[in-house]
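Render this sequence as a predicted structure.
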Amino acid sequence: MNQRELKTKEFEQYNDDFTWFLSNYNSLLEKFSDKFVAILHNNVIESDTDIRKLRNKLLDKYNDNYSHIYIDFLYSKHPNFVL
């Protein structure tokens, strides 16, 4: 597989993880409310309330794949945005 094909595959997996996150938001919210979640291959691999701690855990365990991990936050309440 050449570099372009590899990058395309990585992007598709990242996008798939993002889509999985959105599709499973409500069930994830029940388990990981007010936490950051790290998702790889449609599985939550780590979670934490502190993004720095989560990052360190991921770097320790998944250093080679760190850039492929989708990370997002599960809000228990809808955030208020000030424009």
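Summary. The chain has one domain: 3-74. The radius of gyration is 14 Å.
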